[in-house]
Amino acid sequence: MASREAYEVCRKLTAKHGKTYYFSTCFFPPEIRRAVHSLYGFVRCPDEIVDNPEAGANPERLLADFRAETLAALQTGESSNPVLEAFAETARRFEIPLDYPLAFLDAMAMDLTRDRYQTFDDLLCYTYGSASVVGLMMCRLIGMNAIEGMGPAHDLGLAMQLTNFLRDVGEDWVTRGRIYLPLDDMEQFNYSQKELAAGILNDNFRRLMKFQIARARSYYESADSGMRYIPYDRRLPVRLARILYSRILDKIEENDYDVFRKRAATSLPEKFVTALKELRRQGVELPARIAG
Prior knowledge:
Elements: H1 4-17, H2 19-25, H3 30-51, H4 59-76, H5 82-93, H6 99-110, H7 120-142, H8 150-167, H9 169-176, H10 183-188, H11 193-197, H12 203-224, H13 235-254, H14 268-282, H15 288-291
C-alpha cells in the first residue's frame, strides 16, 4: 500500500505546478482527489525532465530511467520514487491500461527530438500522448465508463493542451526553441518563424491566433457533450477545470493576443467566483479544503 507521504508529494506537485488543475481537484471526494493528484505527479515528473533539465543533465537518459522505473512500479506495485509509488497503486486500483502511461512517456520523448510540426494532424500525433491519454486516464479515476464519453474526454485533454500551447507561444520559443503552432497554419496566415522568434505582434499573428483559439474552443464544445456521462458527485471538478482553462483563451483575447509579453491566466478570485456560481447552480457546499 502506498504511503500517505507518497500521495502528499503528489499533492504538493499539483499545488505548485498546476494551480487551476489543483483548484478544481479540491471538489473531488477525498479518495478520488488523492488518485488524481498521483496522476498529476506522474505526468509532471517526465515533463520536468524534458522541459526544465538541470544544468549538465542528460534528459534522454533521465527519461529512459524514469520509463524503466515506471514499468517496474506498475509491475510490482512498489517504487523508491514516491510519485511512482502512489501512481502504481492508483493505476492498479483503477485498472489504467499500460498503453496510456507509456503513450504519455512516448510523447515526452518526442519533445527531446522534435520542435516543429508541419500540420495539425502531425501535432495530433504528439497531443494524443501528451494530453488526450491523460483525459482517458482521468475517466478511469472518476468512474466514467461510458463509451460515449471517451471521445469527449479525449477532446477535453486536447483542448487544454492546445490552450497551453497558445498561452505559452513565447515561452516555448524562448526557453525551449519549440513551436507548437502548425507550420502550415503559420504559412496560411503569412506569419514566419523569424517573426515568432522576434516576438512580433501584428495583424497576421492576430488572425493566426484567432484561428487557433476557435479550433481549441471547438474541442471544448465537443468535450461538453460528455459531461453527462460523468458520475454526478465527480462532475463539478471536471466542469470547473473546463471552464477555467477555456477562460485562458478569453484572457489571450483581452491581452490583444500578446502571448510574448503577457501571460494569460485566471486569478484566484476569478476561480472562486466561478466555483461559487457552479456550486450554487448545483446546490453543493464549498469544500472545507478551500473554505478553510
